[in-house]
Design a protein that fits this description.
Blueprint: H1 12-31, H2 52-57, H3 59-66, E1 68-79, E2 82-93, E3 98-104, E4 118-123, E5 126-130, E6 141-145, H4 162-167, E7 173-183, E8 186-196, H5 197-203, H6 209-218, E9 223-231, E10 236-246, E11 250-260
Helix pairs in contact: 5-6
Length: 283
C-alpha cells in the first residue's frame, strides 16, 4: 500500500477546520480503545467490457445518467492494533451532486453506543454534520469546507463522499479484469487497479474538482488502489478504495461504497444559516 503523507503545514485556522471533521474518524478509533487499456479476458465472460479502463473511467458519467441511487458506506480503519468500522446509509443525486448519509459510529469496548448517529449532508465544497457532539447543541449543524480539508473529505467524515469516490475513478489506470462476482444479488464484473488523485482532480466534475485538488495537495503520493464492481449495464454497484492517512500516526483506511435502487428520488434540504453552529467546538 502506498503511504500518503501531508506535504504542507497548515496554520492554526486551517488545523481547526480539519479537526472539525477529522474528529469523526479519530473519535471512532478512540471509542474502541485505541497502465494500459487493461483488456479483459474474453474467455472469462463475453459480456465483460473489453476496454476495462474506459469502463471504469466512465463510471461517473453512467451514474449521472442514472440520476440517483441509494448508498451504503463502510469505512474500516486500523491504527496501532485497533480496527473499527464506521457505517453509513443514505442516498445520492448524481446530477445535482448532492447526497445525505446517516453515519453510525461504533460502540465503545463495553458495547454501549457512545455516539448518536451523525446526519451528513454532502454538497459541492461542503460537508454539513448534525449530532456532531463535542459541545455542539443537538439542534445545530456544523459546516465544514471540504476544499480546506487536507484529505478533501476522502476520510474525514467517516464516509468517503460517494460523488468523490466515483470521480476518483476518472483517472483509473493499470486496470485488470478479475472475474464475475455478485453484489447484493446482482451479477457484476470485478476489476482492480489504481487511480491518481491529482490526475482525477484535473478531469473531475465541477464541485468535486476542488475537494480533489485539496486532497492532491494534502497527500504526498496520489496513487490509490481500488476494487470496482460494474453490473451488466455498466453501472457502478460497488467501489472500494484503500488509503493510508497520516494524522497523529498512520491510519490505514478501506472505504467502501455500495449503490443500489437507481432512480430513487433523493432530497437534500440544507440548514438555514441560523441553524449552523458558530461557537467553539471542543477537542
Amino acid at each position: 500500500m502506498v503511504v500518503h503523507q501531508h506535504r504542507r503545514r497548515r496554520g492554526r485556522a486551517g488545523e481547526a477546520v480539519v479537526a472539525v471533521g477529522m474528529a469523526v474518524t479519530v473519535a471512532a478509533l478512540g471509542a474502541c480503545g485505541g497502465g494500459g487499456s487493461g483488456e479483459a479476458s474474453a474467455s472469462d465472460d463475453a459480456r465483460a467490457p473489453r476496454d476495462t479502463a474506459a469502463a471504469i473511467r466512465g463510471a461517473a458519467d453512467g451514474l449521472a445518467g442514472a440520476g440517483s441511487a441509494r448508498a451504503r458506506t463502510a469505512m474500516e480503519m486500523a491504527t496501532g492494533g485497533t480496527r473499527v468500522t464506521i457505517r453509513g446509509e443514505g442516498g445520492v443525486d448524481f446530477r445535482k451532486r448532492m447526497g445525505q448519509l446517516l453515519v453510525m459510529l461504533p460502540a465503545d469496548v463495553t458495547g454501549k453506543a457512545e455516539h448518536r448517529p451523525i446526519t451528513e449532508l454532502l454538497v459541492p465544497g461542503a460537508l454539513y454534520m448534525k449530532n456532531r457532539g463535542a459541545g455542539v447543541p443537538d439542534d445545530k449543524w456544523v459546516r465544514v469546507d471540504t476544499t480546506a480539508l487536507a484529505d478533501g473529505n476522502l476520510v474525514t467524515g467517516g464516509a468517503t463522499d460517494p460523488l468523490t469516490a466515483v470521480e476518483l475513478l476518472r483517472a483509473a489506470q493499470g486496470v485488470t479484469y478479475v472475474g464475475e462476482d455478485e453484489v447484493a444479488g446482482t451479477r457484476v464484473w470485478h476489476y482492480q487497479g489504481t487511480t491518481d488523485i491529482g490526475r482525477a482532480a484535473r478531469t473531475a466534475s465541477p464541485g468535486v474538482k476542488e475537494a480533489l485538488e485539496a486532497a492532491a495537495k494534502g497527500f504526498s503520493k496520489d496513487s490509490v488502489p481500488f476494487d470496482v464492481y460494474l453490473d451488466e449495464e455498466g453501472l457502478l454497484r460497488k467501489v472500494r478504495h484503500r488509503f493510508t492517512y497520516v494524522k497523529n500516526g498512520v491510519i490505514d483506511v478501506s472505504s467502501t461504497t455500495m449503490l443500489y435502487g437507481f432512480g430513487t428520488p433523493v432530497t437534500v434540504a440544507l440548514p438555514a444559516s441560523g441553524d449552523i453552529f458558530a461557537g467553539k467546538i471542543a477537542d
